[in-house]
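Database export, one record per block. Field names are fixed; values are copied verbatim from the stored entry.
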Amino acid sequence: MVTDNIDVADGLVNGTIATVVGIDSTGPYVHTILVKFDSDRVGKQAIAESQYKQAYPGAVPIKRQSVQFFTDRGRRSVQAQRAQFPLSLAWGCTIHKVQGKTLDTIVVSMESKGCFMPGQAYVALSRVKSLNGLYLLGFEASAIRVNPAVLSEMSRLKQELVLKAPLPSFTATRGTCLSIKLLNIRSYTEHLQDLKADRSTLPVDVFCFVETFLQKHQQIELFIPETRAFRAERIGRGGGVMNLAKQDVNPTDLHIAVQGLEHIATTVTKASTTVNIINIYRPPSLPEAVFIGKLQNLLHQLPWNIMTVILGDFNFDLLKCPPPQILPVMRQFGFSQQVQVPTTDYGTLLDHVYVRGHGQDSVQVSVQDTYYTDHDMVCVSLMLTHQTAS
């Protein structure tokens, strides 16, 4: 188990479970411990940058971390420094350490009377996917307690909380709006039922997915009726992009050949306005300079006289300083980036929306949380003719 927040944006956080797969040492001195995490979502950036990725594919290198501290509070206190690997054996964990985890099987010990604080039994028992995977040692019903203040607050929220609309929507009385949504789905088939249950996915004209995890020629169910699917699958595991476009926006395939760039391009027409929509996924393993070169190749092939939207998961955090090179490149080709807030559960802005051929005041973007993936859904509204907001 990781015992420190090494890189929050990359999922390397306190409490994450992994398996040791290798140790790099010179004599008695250990340089690096290589671990594989239970979730393939953790450490993607670290794996891509690892010098050990050939010998230990899929493994994250963990280095020693130095911490400075004082030995005492008195006058005799001295400052010391300790270097440790932020790892600990985790055959057994405290309830605090397993918060937020989902496990196939779990053994919960309730043998120590009085050790469960209010809410802790719920946290422990709800880690497992099914009753068949739950094992109890010394079950004690009195350990299942709730904090009265929590009950009171939940009651207040149900009665008083008013949800705010995420965006003012364009009225259709004086024109037409094109609705585009973007989501890193991390397996389309796995989350198909979630997409159907999520009311915020509709209405939409074009839904752009990245990391679909689909295979070539794989038959799928389209969760939106009367749509056409435009897909590009990666050879091998993971990746993949897909655009689902409603039939009434007359979607057609826009062929743009760029070798080694995961993308799909679709042309739609609504209210006599033609829009090109290019959906891109850049895996963390693709170096920035290589990706920028491929992106410029794509940009040179796009016509300037057609409104264009380029969006996707670029794995460049736009909230970092200095900003990534993609911004000046896109500006050079007339595109403006529309998303201004984080788009992941880790507080990073990885999902971008670039628009060309459209006024800044006629583009609206909102970011909505999703419970079934660690990326938020990015919702784009393009006002195609003069309209007012409602």
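Remark 1: Residues 170-175, 386-390 have pLDDT under 50 and may be disordered.
Remark 2: The chain has three domains: 1-90, 92-152, 177-383.
End of record.
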